[in-house]
Amino acid sequence: MTTQPDHQAPAAPRPATLHELRTALSRYGLPGDRERFEKDLAAALDASPIGDLAAVTEVAATYRHRLALRTNPDAMDSLAAPIGGQQWTPAADVFARLRAAGGDR
Q1: What is the mean pLDDT of each run of 10 residues along the chain (105 residues)?
Q2: Given this model, what pLDDT does residue 102 score?
Q3: Do the Cβ atoms of 70 and 29 come closer than 8 Å?
Q4: 10-44 as b/e, with b when 16 or more CB fall inside 10 Å?
Q5: pLDDT for 95
Q6: Taking phi first (over 0 means left), then psi (-120 to 50 degrees means alpha), and beta for anything else, what does residue 31 get?
Q7: Dist CA 48 CA 58 (whole Å)
Q8: CA–CA dist 27, 3 (Å, integer)
C-alpha cells in the first residue's frame, strides 16, 4: 500500500518570482508582511548600484524564508512549544507585567 498525500494540509508556497512572492505574502504571511516586504524591497532597490541587485535578492530570500517557516507546521509547532516548562500566553504575559509594575494591589 502506498502513502497517500494529505490534501487537507496547506500547500507550502515556493514562489519563484517577485509576483508570486507578493501573492504568497498576501495569502500566507502575517499581517503587515506584504507592506514590510514592499518597503524593504524599495529600500534595497534604491540603495543598489546599477547592475548589482544582491541586496534585492537578499530581501526576496529573507521573505521567502519567512514564508517557508510560516507554512511549515513543524516550525510553527516549535514556536508554540513551552519554554522552560511553561506555556506562554498573551494573557499570562499581561498579568506578569502588571504584577511586576505593582498593579496587583
Answers
A1: 50 81 92 95 95 94 90 75 67 78 63
A2: 77
A3: yes
A4: eeebebeeeeebbebbeebbeeebbeebeebbeeb
A5: 77
A6: beta
A7: 12
A8: 29
| Structural element, H or E, at residue 75 | helix 73-80
C-alpha cell at 49: 548600484
Amino acid making up residue 22: R
> Distance between CA 65 and CA 77 in Å, rounded?
17
Give the integer Cα–Cα distance in Å for 55 and 45.
Answer: 7
Q: If residue 47 lies in a helix (H) or strand (E), which one and from where to where?
A: helix 33-47
pLDDT of residue 7: 45
Predicted local confidence at residue 12, as pLDDT: 56
Gyration radius of the chain's alpha carbons: 20
Nearest to 36 by CA among 44, 16, 20: 44
Helix, strand, coil abundance in the chain, percent, nearest 5: 60, 0, 40
